[in-house]
Amino acid sequence: MKLAWLTEWRSGRIQDRQLLVLLALATLAFFFGLDGAPLFDLDEGAFSEATRQMFVRGDFLSPYVNFEPRFDKPILIYWLQAPSVWLFGVNEIGFRFPSALAAVLWVVVVYRFVAEKMDRTTALVAGIITATSLGVLAIGRAATADALLNLLVAATMLDIFRYYQQRKKVILYRAFLWMGLGILTKGPVAILIPLAVSLMFFVSRREFGTWLRAVFNPVGLIIMLAVALPWYVIQYGREGDAFIQGFFFKHNVGRFSSPMENHGGGLFYYAVVIPLLVLPYTGLLLATLGRIREALRDDRLLYLWLWFLFVFVFFSFSGTKLPHYVLYGLTPLFILMAHYREQARNRFLMLLPALLFFALLFHAPEIVALIQPQVKDSHVAALLSAPGEAFGLSYRLLLGSAVALVLILLLENRVAAWFKLLLAGCASTVIFVAALTPAAGILQQQPIKQAALVARQLNEPVVMWRLNTPSFNVYSRKSTEKRDPKPGEVVLTKTRHLVELPAYELLYERRGVALARVLPAGSRK
């Protein structure tokens, strides 16, 4: 087997085609099979319904869901989803396209920075790791604001380091632009991370004065405020103190100070989550963490470590914890992992996480069948009651092939361990796109989507009762009030609650989800 091309690639002599190769890989990773699963509740359903409601209401300034303002996130992601929906239709591709595009651009931003500050081979490796890590794949293919925010945070942070080295005002102004767009995407976090990390870094290099002048650069501040402030002013004018209380205090201050929507976790929550988010590169992550002491000798490495560590520590102390929060700090970790790839020579340790991950997924049908009878929530148990639908023959073949690939890579001893790991990463991407996501969609969302398609054929409104699945609104093209149903109304609810209705006509029922018409008093079930 001739490996001359690999030697050329590792030495950096194959350069012109690298970005094209990376673009092709990232495009396939984030766009292929984008409609392979229904919109997932709650987040995808809520974002998508808010965008759909903009068309229904003819209002593209204020997001609404079920007749109420949605103060969770600012406007930019909805503004990007709206033209996408106009172009592709009210479907999964239309709502997810902006996130997929943002994820591809995120990969390109990483590649360009590393190619500029390190070398092209490391840049390609960093780009591939970014594009094929489990956590990035999940948010890069989701109709939420997180892929967009990660792109903007990465662009801001990398331009701040460029400014530190080059002191060019145009780079500084660009960083302010990215922060302004980030504020329009998710709010104060787009300022918090750049300010805190850059302060620590500049102070460590005895350049506090430089940092202070950059932060209060009048042109930069004008750029940022001109981008972000108008929408906030308009929203305050429309909604008044309810917007301030809902967005700033509840969904920003409140999320940090206490758990929201049962999304809590201990101090070491992200120490457990991060190894999962970087799968199948967990072995490389552990090897990289062991080299943190080398950072003080290199501005680039110190900046990347400070970036990662600040996000890790800050969100570890947050009251509300969700896995994707720590992704704001994984971009520097991906770069560091690519930088230290040559030091990770033990192919067994590098490939073991991938092997365990694929083997676990291969046995997912048996695992689901085993835990389903033990689940106390009858609704969740009902959703998990048909593993055969989610895990078919194609699922088994894909996972079996992935396990076989890793075993072959373990036996092969001529190719570098890090290169084998990239191959496992590509295999993991195929598994996520073609097997894992469709299976999860069938288990969690298929009954909701099918009920919504039934409801779409009904020329009458629907009430949502003891259930919160905004994706139902998207597929049914109806807004739903959340309240007790009245006689004559159609209600979407959990199957277990049907017994509480006086009398009803069952319109649809599948795996814990029911659509029924409440009959007048005195009628029989």
Strand order of the largest sheet: 4-3-5-7-6
Overall mean confidence score, pLDDT: 89
Total individual domains: 3
* Model regions low in confidence, pLDDT < 50 over at least 5 residues: none
Span of the ends, CA to CA: 72 Å
Shape: globular
- Helix/strand class: mainly alpha
Total of helices: 25
What is the percent of helical residues? 55-70%
Biggest β-sheet description: 5 strands, mixed
The percentage of residues in β strands lies in: 5-15%
Mind telling me the C-alpha Rg?
25 Å
Number of strands: 7
Structure description:
With 525 residues, the protein is mostly helical. It has three domains: 4-32 and 71-343, no CATH class; 356-444, no CATH class; 448-518. 65% of the residues lie in helices and 5% in strands. It is built from 25 helices and seven strands. The chain has helices at 4-11, 18-31, 43-57, 76-88, 92-117, 120-132, 134-140, 146-166, 169-186, 189-204, 208-215, 218-239, 241-257, 269-277, 282-289, 299-316, 330-339, 347-362, 364-371, 378-383, 387-390, 393-411, 417-444, 446-456, 471-476, and strands spanning 64-65, 68-69, 462-464, 480-482, 490-494, 504-510, 513-518. The strands form two sheets. It has a five-stranded mixed beta sheet with strand order 4-3-5-7-6. Strand 1 and strand 2 (68-69) form a beta hairpin.
